[in-house]
């Protein structure tokens, strides 16, 4: 069931997810491998590198998750040993170089706790 949902989501990626996926695929030349819309536990994440233990989420209105559900999801992923990086769609649209810099820093940094697990809320940054 989860694999079928993931397959459908891969066909319905947002413009921002397509942009991010295109950039993440170029990192393969540096030895990083990402999967898109991948099931992990009860969730389907936007992008994941199992080897590097990083989950990347593109946040916009499409998820519709309440804050508590988002926190529960991120907590599950962290307990499973993943660093969760979340980016607002507007950041992907307008600050893409910064988004990619954050991702590449996280891939190279053995201390993932220094990266925010959720984008700032309106008015926070």
Task: Write structural notes for this entry.
Helix 3 (67-79) links the parallel strand 3 (54-59) and strand 4 (83-88). The chain has a single domain (2-12, 32-114), classed as 3-Layer(aba) Sandwich (Endonuclease, Chain A), CATH 3.40.960.10. 43% of the residues lie in helices and 20% in strands. It contains 5 helices and 4 strands; from the N terminus they run H-H-E-E-E-H-E-H-H. Residues 113-125 have low confidence and may be disordered. By secondary structure, the protein is of the alpha+beta class.
Outline of this structure?
With 125 residues, this protein is of the alpha+beta class. The protein contains five helices and four strands.
CATH homologous superfamily, by name?
VSR Endonuclease
Q: What is the 3D shape?
A: globular
Indicate the mean pLDDT: 81
**Straight-line distance between termini:** 38 Å
- What would you say the CATH architecture is? 3-Layer(aba) Sandwich
For this structure, the CATH topology is Endonuclease, Chain A
Unreliable sequence segments: 113-125
Portion of residues in beta strands equals 15-25%
Order of helices and strands: HHEEEHEHH
Helices and strands: which structural class? alpha+beta
Tell me which oligomeric state these chains represent: single chain
Separate helix tally: 5
User: Biggest sheet, open or closed, and with what strands and sense?
Assistant: 4 strands, mixed
As a percent range, the share of helical residues equals 40-55%
Number of strands: 4
CA radius of gyration is: 14 Å
Across the major sheet, the strand order is: 1-2-3-4
């Amino acid at each position: 069931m989860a694999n079928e949902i993931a397959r459908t989501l891969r066909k319905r990626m947002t413009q921002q997810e397509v942009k991010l996926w295109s950039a993440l695929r170029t990192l393969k030349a540096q030895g990083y491998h990402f999967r898109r819309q991948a099931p992990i536990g009860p969730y389907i994440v936007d992008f994941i590198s199992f080897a590097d233990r990083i989950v990347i989420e593109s946040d916009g209105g499409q998820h519709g998750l309440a804050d508590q559900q988002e926190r529960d999801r991120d907590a599950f992923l962290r307990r499973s040993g993943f660093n969760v990086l979340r980016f607002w769609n507007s950041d992907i649209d307008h600050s893409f170089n910064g988004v990619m810099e954050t991702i590449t820093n996280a891939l190279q940094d053995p201390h993932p706790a220094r990266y925010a697990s959720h984008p700032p809320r309106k008015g926070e940054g």
